[in-house]
């Protein structure tokens, strides 16, 4: 099977798992929003935002390092992966204990503090699970991740329904999260051990080498954390839980959507890394261009579709109590599209070993975001939080894109991107001017978009035929 179809097939399989899991997650989100209300959902959002800070610090950039290291030729995969997994285990455990201790010094209700103790278990499990998914992506075995995703979410959904039925309360909801994610992890762990018999390992030289490579990525992630999650924390310090809940609902939708670019780039990144290490810039540029075209076909209809249908989407998912979240969703969907492309450029920056040179931009973005958050959130609430998020994400996209262009000196072809934009604008205008139900509007919008990109050549007939017939030609070379 060709590289294109391997990546496409595994992206589809993993995306199917994520999509199915996310669809279940959206149902859970709707149940939680209605059961907890804006105040309870605000507490729920605050707990995850708080623990996110510590999980990012404990990540140490190991996800990207794992993908790239396992993608290099001639490495002892078992030895390397065992040491990376151990580093993640130690760092994750330490940071979750630290987070559970420091929460008592924050001005949050006891319910939030006890909730953080419970959810720290699930966050630790998620940190370990992320590295296992990296192994599946490298081995092109994402079907395992899909199975674990679906089973874990079904269990979580079932437990959530039981908690609501018996009105067991807020903390019981959190235990449902822990159980669902733990089962998800255990399924992935059992599959991973069959692929690679890794174990705890403490090789001083490997730890030193891994941490030397990962610290620039870790620093970037820590600073990016400030502009990705600090808004929720700062909002929670100035406004009541109801306001945080209104912001948290569309933010959860954003988090569901940005799972896709991480999956896709997790599969593409090793090939970018290998092409660059072999000084094969022709392959690097071709793969990068194809990835950009693929993202372009997704980003524009996602943005314009959400702009047109934000009201019925929020009403369906979270309920009328969250209707004030509609303009927030419309702003954050722009940030989501930017994050899609930023995944491509930032993963490529790591592949060409320019993460250290990007450091100054990450620091600038983080400092600017914090300053803007503290200036504008007290006055403009979640509107300021959403707008600043868009601005800062766009800055990172431009900085990383220019870094790649400066290093490799190649031009990006925007033909597919512009054709997709045109089709999406037409789709938006039709959806905006009509007043059909949500389901019919989604189907109509999807058909309009697909017909236009097929007619204007953005979606090539040959590509569809090759994938359907499962031919083995390298369509990425065309």
Write up what this structure looks like.
The protein is mainly α and 478 residues long. The protein has one domain. It contains 16 helices and no strands. It has helices spanning 3-59, 62-70, 77-102, 110-138, 142-165, 170-195, 204-228, 230-238, 241-257, 259-277, 281-317, 326-351, 359-408, 415-433, 438-455, 461-469. The radius of gyration is 22 Å and the shape is globular. The model is unreliable at 466-478 (pLDDT under 50).
Radius of gyration: 22 Å
- The shape, in one word, is globular
Q: Helix amount, in percent?
A: over 70%
Q: How many β-strand stretches?
A: 0
What is the mean pLDDT?
84
How many structurally independent domains?
Answer: 1
Q: Any low-confidence stretches, pLDDT <50, length ≥5?
A: 466-478
Largest sheet: number of strands, sense, barrel closure: none
Strand content bin: under 5%
Helix-strand category: mainly alpha
Main traits of this protein?
478 residues; mainly alpha; 84% helix
